[in-house]
Amino acid sequence: MPGIRAHQLPPDELRAGVRQWCAEHVPHDWHERQTSASHEEFVRFQNWWFGELRAAGYAVPHWPQSWGGGFDLARQAVIFEELARADAPRLSLHFVSLHHAAGTFLDAGTPEQRSRYLPGILDGAVWCQGFSEPEAGSDLASLRTRAERHGDVYVVNGQKIWASGAAYAQHCLLLVRTDPGAPKRRGISYLVMDMDSPGVLVRPIRQITGEEHFCEIFLTDVEIPVGNLIGAENDGWRVAQSTLASERGGTMIELAERLAVGLRRLLLEAAGPGGPPPTADTVVGDRLARLAREVQALRLLVRQVITRSSSELAQGAHASVVKLYYSELLQRLTAFGMELAGLDGQRAVRRPVGSGWESGAWLLDHIGSWEWTIPGGTSEIQRNIIAERALGLPREPAA
Ligand SMILES: Cc1cc2nc3c(=O)[nH]c(=O)nc-3n(C[C@H](O)[C@H](O)[C@H](O)COP(=O)(O)OP(=O)(O)OC[C@H]3O[C@@H](n4cnc5c(N)ncnc54)[C@H](O)[C@@H]3O)c2cc1C
């Protein structure tokens, strides 16, 4: 259909196009290559893959049309489904940039800030999120990193922790305290920090798996221009809700599709090569059927939730329901994968750098699944939000 752009194609034609593109572009051996990749190779690979997706028009389907997206929900789902089905690499290095940072600027940034930051994100700039602190994780509003205004700059001192990908990041979404005298949620501001600013020290945290997914960030007299303030001074808590809502809700469309692919993998493995259908064993069949129902429920739930406006998402509990359901379902599914695989599934293999839970080995995938119930608010915190905002239960009085 000449003249019709991808975001206007009928979903079936879009699907055929994405499928064809994946067949031609997804490197068949990327798992093996990334398993022995150094961190530099991982970054190069992720940037290359981002460039491929961008050239095809599939990198930011969820962004507005003026910024290279404009796909409606049904078409976004088609793209993510096909990428997942083709086992295309996930953009794990750019996850914070494409979802948390972009979502925040589109929702709470000025037009000037969107023009300043979104093109860089499209060019592959890596962002990290500096919210958590050693004494402020679940109770994020207790954060103590201090920013004092001196003329045209804020001077920032403090420490952040658990910042994913900070070792590779060029920019950071930073929450700071600008009014220590105000009630704790009212004295917080939201800044953009360049990671190469003098006074920024990034220290990677080595995990037991040998990976260095997160970092500590130490800030000593870091000067951040006042123009890098997102939203109003002392209104950062409200802006942060946009970031957290996109972390808990909207990003899930892709993850839900990946889970559906995980379920297919489970079905194939349960059958074995030339073996009986998995439903031949009623216990296995029953559990598979239950998981299949849950995955389908998640996909429908995600579609329903992302039709909500960002302010509805930020205020309500919809995003929390999705985050809670996804992360706990992921644990149930990978646990069953491990159980079905028996002793074979316990063999420790190395997982591809940045592959998340989709390493191909159920033991590692199950271990990897546990990290999903913590960031963006733990499962307990999501249950608190659902109890208060959706069910209207009373808040526990502060001690
Ligand atoms: C994979 C991963 C990636 C992350 N990436 C980032 C990042 O990029 N940027 C960033 O800023 N942070 C990041 N984090 C940090 C994450 O947001 C925090 O770990 C999380 O908010 C929990 O805080 P905490 O670790 O301080 O635990 P704590 O807040 O100390 O909680 C400890 C335990 O107590 C429970 N608990 C605490 N308060 C309550 C309550 N009121 N009611 C019921 N139970 C409660 C918690 O559920 C938890 O089980 C990441 C974490 C992980 C695991």
CATH class of the largest domain: Mainly Alpha
User: How many individual domains?
Assistant: 3
Q: pLDDT average, as an integer?
A: 87
CATH superfamily of the largest domain: Butyryl-CoA Dehydrogenase, subunit A, domain 3
Which distinct ligands sit in these coordinates? flavin-adenine dinucleotide
How many angstroms does the end-to-end distance come to? 65 Å
Query: Tell me, what's the shape?
Result: globular
Going across the biggest sheet, name each strand in turn: 1-4-5-8
Radius of gyration: 22 Å
Q: How many helix segments? A: 13
Major sheet size, sense and barrel closure = 4 strands, mixed
CATH hierarchy: architecture of the largest domain: Up-down Bundle
In CATH, the topology of the largest domain is named: Butyryl-CoA Dehydrogenase, subunit A, domain 3
The SSE string, one letter per element, is HHHHHHEEEEEEEEHHHHHHH
Tell me the helix content. Answer: 40-55%
Uncertain runs are none
Strand content: 5-15%
**Secondary structure: number of strands:** 8
